[in-house]
Specification:
By secondary structure, the protein is an alpha/beta fold. The protein has 13 helices and 15 strands. The protein folds into two domains: 88 residues, Urease, subunit C, domain 1, CATH 2.30.40; 301 residues, Metal-dependent hydrolases (TIM Barrel). The strands form two sheets. Strands 5-6-7-8-9-10-11-12 form an eight-stranded parallel β-sheet. A seven-stranded mixed β-sheet has the order 3-2-1-4-13-14-15, with no helix packed on it. A hairpin with a 7-residue loop joins strand 1 and strand 2. It is globular and about 65 Å long. The chain binds zinc ion. The site of zinc ion has 6 residues, from loops. Zinc ion binds next to loops.
Length: 412
């Protein structure tokens, strides 16, 4: 007999078990994990044929509002300054319908790649006002069947140097932003922006997720200041920083000291490998640095870290397929990680560790956890990262949201 809402994924491989299992889903959660063949056949059954069932991918840092505008912009220098300038020009013509359509396209792409949870950064300033923010906010309910989407509002074009922006951040938080972000390097007074963002975060009791230290000039590094502010405000465990590319330019002793400081302050680090590779090291004509923070070394020091997409098809990153398993592969390649446990860590930085940054502790394939799952065309997490395994099925709270047939050869 089939029971509505019950589903069994047969013949699955999961983390932490060597045998093949059946996963029973009930009321949106994983109800049981049994040896293959022993689950009661009382629901819709999907035979995954010995494939790896991963927790759904978790995107901690993406910009839906400015995605898919590469055809409207020039990216000739490939510098951060050019990207900010070009997007600011394009932004003047953004309408709510335009932002909504592009953001929905990117969000759907992410869902098709197996992403079940996402934090998107959305910019406000006197030019765009709340047009972009409201358009993205509408997607939260429209796509709740497939993805948990939360908005982080931030001042891409400056805060202390851009009057009117702080009022818009406050308005966005009142309208439903769940996180406040920052980009201190666009204001003359970087610490001034950081101070204001902490004050706003405390007022609204929301976490902070700031772009930080997006340069290779270690003299312009603010990570120590952010760690000090985090401790001062008792915000341990509620602050994440993105990019932190200066960490790639530090000698080992200074790096280790900052790793200890980040661990102590409970500040998480998100690496955005595609953007960092594209924008860092411009102007250097040989031995070009990778400019990607070695976060696997931070994890060893007790810091939480995630890998994320950041930009999709715009002057900051003129590429993008929203695949987090591809981003994990890209990071592994840049960071020269090849051992099985190192590849598995890269997978956790787009699943379990990423979920921790978004405040969810139980993002694993285990009894009692939400059934947010992706079936990958491979047998393990390490293989998924090594081979950029395709997602064949995606489940959101047990309901199938995506299916894709494995590629097949048609021999003559
Ligand atoms: Zn970003």
């Amino acid at each position: 007999m089939k029971i509505a809402g019950h589903r069994v994924l047969r013949n699955a491989r999961i983390d932490g078990r060597d045998d093949i299992v059946d996963i029973t889903i009930a009321a949106g959660r994983i109800g049981a994990i049994d040896a293959a063949g022993s689950a009661h056949n009382d629901g819709d059954t999907v035979d995954v044929g010995g494939r790896y069932v991963s927790p759904g991918f978790v995107e901690t840092h993406v910009h839906l509002d400015k995605s898919c505008i590469v055809d409207r912009c020039h990216a000739r220098e490939g510098t951060l300054a050019e990207a900010i300038r070009e997007v600011a020009n394009a932004k003047a013509a953004f309408t709510p319908d335009d932002v909504h359509a592009r953001a929905a396209r990117t969000l759907e792409r992410a869902i098709l790649q197996g992403t079940t949870r996402m934090r998107t950064h959305v910019e406000v300033d006197p030019g765009i006002g709340l047009r972009g923010f409201d358009a993205v906010l509408a997607l939260v309910d429209e796509y709740a069947w497939a993805i948990d989407l939360e908005l982080c509002v931030f001042p891409q074009e400056g805060l202390t140097d851009n009057p009117g922006t702080e009022e818009l951040i406050v308005a966005a938080l009142r309208r439903g932003a769940r996180v406040v972000g920052a980009a201190p390097y666009v204001d003359r007074d970087r610490h001034g922006q950081i101070d204001r963002i902490f004050a706003i975060a405390r007022d609204f009791d929301v976490p902070i997720d700031m772009h930080l230290d997006f340069t290779l000039d270690v003299a312009k590094m603010d990570v120590e200041y952010v760690c000090a502010k985090t401790r001062e405000h008792r915000y341990e465990g509620r602050v994440a920083i993105g990019h932190a590319t200066t960490l790639s330019a530090l000698p080992a002793a200074r790096f280790d000291a900052i790793a200890a400081m980040l661990a102590d302050a409970g500040v998480a680090v998100t690496v955005l490998p595609s953007t960092d590779l594209f924008l860092m090291g411009r102007g250097i004509d040989h031995d070009i640095p990778r400019g990607v923070a070695p976060v696997h070394r931070l994890v060893k020091a007790g810091v939480n870290a995630s890998l994320a997409t950041n930009n999709v098809l715009n002057p900051f990153t003129p590429y993008g397929d929203c695949s987090l398993v591809r981003m994990a592969n890209l990071y592994a390649n840049i960071a020269q990680l090849g051992a099985r446990d190192e590849l598995a860590l890269c997978h956790r930085m787009v699943t379990e560790r990423a979920a921790q940054i978004l405040g969810t502790g139980d993002h694993r394939v285990e009894v009692g956890a939400l059934a947010d799952l992706v079936v990958l065309d491979c047998a393990s997490a390490a293989q998924a990262v090594a081979e950029i395994a395709a997602p064949l099925y995606v489940f959101k709270q047990g309901r199938m949201t995506v299916s894709r047939a494995p590629a097949m050869l048609h021999r003559p």
